[in-house]
Amino acid sequence: MDDEIHDTPFDTDIIVVGGGPAGLTAALAAAQTGWRVHFMAPEPAFEDRRTSALMVSTLSFLERLDVWPHCSSAAAPLCTMRIVDDTGRLLRAETVEFKASEIGEEAFGWNIPNAALTHRLRDLFEVHPRITRHNTSVASLSLRDDGIAVVADDGMRVKGRLVIGADGQRSRCRAAARITTREWPLDQAAIAANLEHERDHGFTSTEFHRPPGPFTLVPLPGRRSSLVWVETKDRAEAINALDDEAFAREAERVAHRILGRMRVDGPRGMFPLGGAVARSFAGNRIALVGEAAHVMPPIGAQGLNLGLRDVASLLDSIARCGREDPGSSSVLSHYDRDRRADVWVRVGGVEVLNRSLIAGLVPVQAARAMGLAALRGLGPLRRAVMREGIKPHLSLPTMMRDRDDRRRPLGGERRP
Hints:
Residues 392-416 are annotated as: Disordered. This protein is an alpha+beta fold. The chain has a single domain, classed as FAD/NAD(P)-binding domain (3-Layer(bba) Sandwich), CATH 3.50.50.60. The protein is built from 11 helices and 21 strands.
């Protein structure tokens, strides 16, 4: 059967597997740069109630795809980012505030419901002539030097030159590419919820650093915020089992009532935490993006921003090395090299910060407190950290640069 598949002509250029924001963005961006795209993912079983804090470089990318202008009304700006040392330990840092105005920006980014983002992406799918959509899961992938074939659960077969694996932590694409991961478990879980509250948030995101993990309130439009609450697994299960009224009262207590009375707005969710990084980000005509490539705790708004940076970086690699064959070894090697430093710096930084909260060792507490004190007291250092957070200097992809920073259009846009 494999020989039969590989004897057939190519059905498409790029096959995208995975229906989350990273996969949807990858399919749309590839199609908008001229490639024929097949998109494979089942219809979601339920609407994603989570939110994502998107940094300005990510917004530049989504603006270029004509996504952001049509969903920005559902988002709130993050003008100030506040870190509160709530460890209760002997060595603690004073509260640190980062203001976007210090580096000449209106906001560090915008917090948007994932549903609003994915709805706009799906709307663009429906009308794009280069995207063919299949609402089905992948059963198998078959590799050859000249291309790759994907067989769907319903028996449909598609042959292309590149597969973009955006199919999450248990990625079938990653397994097919024979890429292993480095993983580390954590005795933590995160509760995600949206809250209404009595006081204005002032477009300030507040992250309480606590021994079980961070408790983070991120602005939404109006007097609403999204909450990501990290606890030990047992404690998270107990908190999530509370009814909405009791949950809101406990959230008020942990937040020191900075937003006054709270009310739960919609369903809550809970998910276990852990870390993982693929040992390679591409191989065998498969490129990994998003959580198929890296997983980390929800600290510092890294997750989706890093995943969409994967997508934009892959398009840059295709532009430089693969205008005729987007799945060539030169494209995949370039992409793997390009992502390695950025991903490991972000994953390593989040892991160190998370471990510093959990650790009870006095030297670790001291180092963390001194680091936050330095950020608070040294303006140039604080501004450098802020700039790096919103516009990483490590290989910021072409499609994520500000319009006045783009030296040229994307070189890989394929001629029709």
